[in-house]
Amino acid sequence: MNKLYILFLGIMLVSCGKKEKNTESTSAKKTYSLQKGSWRVALSVQDGKKLPFIFTTTSKGIEIHNAEERISVDDITIKNDSIIIKMDVYEGVLKGKFTDENNIKGEFVKVSLDRYVPFTATFGTTTRFANAKGEANANITGNWETVFSPNKEDDRYIAKGIFKQNGSTVTGTFRTTTGDYRFLEGTLNGNQLQLSAFDGAHAFLFTATVTDSTMVGEFQSGNHWKEPFTAKRNETYELPDAKSLTYIKEGYDEFNFSFPDATGKMISLTDEHLKGKVRIVQIMGTWCPNCLDESKYYTSYSKNNAEVKFIAVAFEYAKTKEKAFNNIKRLQKRLNIPYPIVLAQFGTSDKQKAQEKLPMLNHVLSYPTTIFIDKKGKVRRIHTGFNGPATGNKYLAFKKDFENFVTTLQNE
What CATH number should be reported for the domain holding residue 60? Predict the structure, then answer.
């Protein structure tokens, strides 16, 4: 009898323990949602620094803020306490878990590059940098002659800083010979400058000690790259002409290629329907924000000028051909691009390997690069890089020059 009682008591204790465990499991399955309003995300980069940006919720998803730029993202999945925010056209994904209604902890992931950047997100904060309301000891509005990695000959490159300051708030960008560093936003607190941008492909952080005429600082890209930079105020400074950096090598009479589109069709500049047409070749990648800005403009222009034939040549770092074409198709669908995008390379965006695919060029210096070909098939101009909307007047000047030159080729 005692043995039966002990056995019964043991069964009851085990049953009670199981019931308590199931209750805890049910509690852990609470489903969260993004609270309506403003969230501050802080990516953890090198040396203990934080790279912040702001997003606000919308009826369709979220909107990422970089100065006057707004990036809409609607591919958001929430299951229980997990959240996945997939960027609009890029591979980058924010993957996290709610720790409570107001906080998320996770990683910014770019699988093809094996990059993982930790982040936290906090609801109800509208200030990008924590000390944004500090008093500035200088005003950096204007143009800045800039050198990145000034003491490393192989890595050294030049840039032009273009900034506007209102109180302690600073916006602007750095233009380089290959493109710009997007819409930067931040603060000048005392003599400490902090600027950041996050667009779903790149995460940029610039910090510097400044005076009215000098900057000494550091640039970080995600948590995988950092380099020093120096700058001095120079209102008349200009970068080299973007039309002089890339050219056809001696010994080559023409520019041509044959690469497949997403359907497997091989496309070449000598295809019958292209003969006698002005052709614009865009060297690009779906991962490249400057290329995205350029693609938006070329899409608009192409739709209104169907007689000008555009072809984009993509160099993708996606690890498989299938993934590369999926990224291409996603970009075409999102932007409603009317012209073909062919795949020249996947698995790497290395510029040296890209030049091997297009051996008639002296180099592939930049994504994007645009090649202008006249009706007779002669290369008339190669434009390296792209001055995007963040560059203000330079963007407007690029569009005007582009349209005037293409009109000239059309009229010949």
Answer: 2.40.128
Tokens found for residue 318: 């996606």
Burial profile 358-370: b = 16 or more Cβ within 10 angstroms, e = fewer: bebbebbbbbbbb
Query: Is it true that the peptide bond before 359 is cis, omega within 30 degrees of 0?
Result: no
Order across the sheet with 62-66: list the strands: 69-73, 62-66, 50-57, 38-44, 115-123, 103-110, 93-100, 82-86, 75-79
pLDDT digits (tens, 9 = 90+) for 349-392: 999 999 999 999 999 999 999 999 999 999 999 999 999 999 99
Q: Are 158 and 388 in contact (CB under 8 A)?
A: no
Start-to-end Cα distance in the chain = 109
* 322 token code pair: 């299938």
Helix 321-335 crosses helix 289-304 at what angle (to 10 degrees)?
Answer: 50
Helix 289-304 and helix 393-411, axial crossing angle in degrees, nearest 10: 40
C-alpha distances in Å from residue 288, one per residue of 199, 229, 293, 315: 10, 23, 9, 10
Domain finish residue from 92, 123, 154: 123
Same domain, 188 and 327: no
Q: CA–CA separation, 253 vs 244, rounded Å?
A: 18
Q: Are residues 204 and 271 in the same domain?
A: no
Contacts of 352 (CB under 8 A, 6+ apart): none
Over residues 206-257, the pLDDT tens digits come to: 999 999 899 999 999 999 999 999 999 999 999 999 999 999 999 898 899 9
DSSP structure string for 73-141: E-EEEEETTEEEEE-SSSS-EEEEEEEETTEEEEEEEEGGGTEEEEEEEEET---SSTTTTSPBS----
Compute the distance between CA of residue 294 and CA of residue 339 in angstroms, rounded to an integer: 13
Cα gap 42→31, rounded to integer Å: 23
Separation between Cα atoms, residue 383 and residue 139, nearest integer Å: 34
What's the domain count of the chain? 3
Domain ranges, residue 271? 258-411
Helix, strand or coil, per DSSP, at residue 20: helix
Q: Token pair of 290, please?
A: 């400057």
Closest Cα partner for 185 from 204, 201, 157? Answer: 204
pTM of the shown model:
0.89
How would you classify the pairing of strands 142-148 and 225-233? antiparallel
